[in-house]
Design brief:
single chain; two-stranded antiparallel sheet; mainly alpha
């Protein structure tokens, strides 16, 4: 009796999922009616904005040249979002539109988690980034253009035939949950880690890395990045505190002209040199480690990937800031 019931439930779920897929394919075909070579280029460009490459370029820029504390928080948020998205894709194992209808394919996704589509990583992570950056200004008007960019990136994924509408909606929902959890829990967790000292922070990082790699065994990169970036930040703040901005310059006592204090604008040359030297070092480190460490097919590839990502994170949060402070491109703060 119970076996028959479960069979009926499974059959009903299958029928509903097929109906959802059919509706999604119909919407994708409707959008693709307007395709043209120019629109193909625009949509692929928008889709690229939601790929990992722009994040790898943006996060170091924010960390080295704008505000290292807020950049750390944003980087951890993006890292957790990417890890959770990949884990959910492997859990649900939902097909992509071109798996059911190759005729809608305008692009393809690779990688282990790239085989599956639910939830959309582009929709989820771009929403987390947009909300995170918009929250820095704390103005409602900033959210409108940020969310417009998220919508266009998500639309490009439908146009290219790599996601169903349900994938996009699931990505938005997951991104909102991540951002809400950050707003609610991060201040409390930060206060607890601050009170616990350096040892508590490093132990927490090690435990989180172990959890991420245990639940995400097919790709140890995110865990290595967390350990390298977070551990490097803890070391940097305790040994050679780096400040991305330049300090406030006080006016002389009794000077009544203007405000009581003025903020000195960070010198553009220093900021440019930080970013150029920092990214050059990151690229050289990544290329060297990829050449020296075992590649795909080796039984040690997972360990090598973990080390490469860890070294990259450590460079961004510790080694590069130490270089900036040593050569007067930044000040301790």
């Amino acid at each position: 009796m119970s076996q028959t019931l479960w069979s009926n439930v499974a059959a009903l779920c299958y029928v509903h999922s097929m109906n959802i897929y059919a509706a999604g394919l119909s919407l994708i075909r409707s959008i693709q009616q307007y395709e043209s070579p120019f629109l193909d280029t625009v949509m692929k460009g928008l889709s690229f904005l939601g790929s990992p490459v722009p994040y790898l370029v943006l996060v170091p820029l924010l960390f080295w040249c704008v505000d290292e504390r807020r950049a750390l928080r944003l980087a951890l948020l993006l890292l957790f979002s990417a890890w959770l998205n990949s884990s959910l894709k492997m859990l649900f194992a939902q097909p992509r539109p071109y798996d059911l209808d190759p005729g809608v394919a305008r692009a393809y996704e690779g990688g282990v988690s790239g085989r599956y589509g639910l939830p959309s990583g582009h929709a989820q992570t771009s929403l987390v980034l947009a909300l995170g950056l918009a929250s820095w200004k704390k103005k409602a008007t900033v959210y409108v253009p940020a969310l417009c960019v998220v919508f266009l990136i998500s639309l490009s994924r439908l146009y290219l035939g790599v996601h169903f509408p349900t994938d996009i909606l699931a990505g938005w929902f997951t991104g909102l949950l991540i951002f809400a959890a950050d707003r609610l829990l991060f201040p409390l967790l930060a206060a607890l880690l601050e009170a616990g000292g350096v040892r508590a922070r490093l132990i927490t990082l090690a435990l989180l890395t172990f959890m991420m790699n245990s639940l995400h065994a097919w790709d140890p990169g995110p865990g290595g990045l967390l350990l390298g970036f977070g551990g490097g930040y803890v070391l940097m703040k305790s040994r050679f505190p780096f400040c991305a901005g330049l300090p406030v310059e006080q006016r002389a006592p009794g000077d009544s002209s203007g405000d009581a204090e003025i903020r000195r604008t960070p010198k553009r040359l220093r900021l440019a040199l930080r970013y150029v030297f920092g990214m050059a070092g990151l690229c050289l480190l990544s290329i060297a480690l990829k050449k020296l460490l075992p590649g795909e097919g080796s039984p040690y590839y997972a360990l090598a990937r973990f080390c490469r990502y860890g070294a990259a994170g450590f460079w961004v949060s510790a080694a590069a800031p130490a270089f900036f402070v040593r050569f007067s491109l930044a000040r301790s703060g």
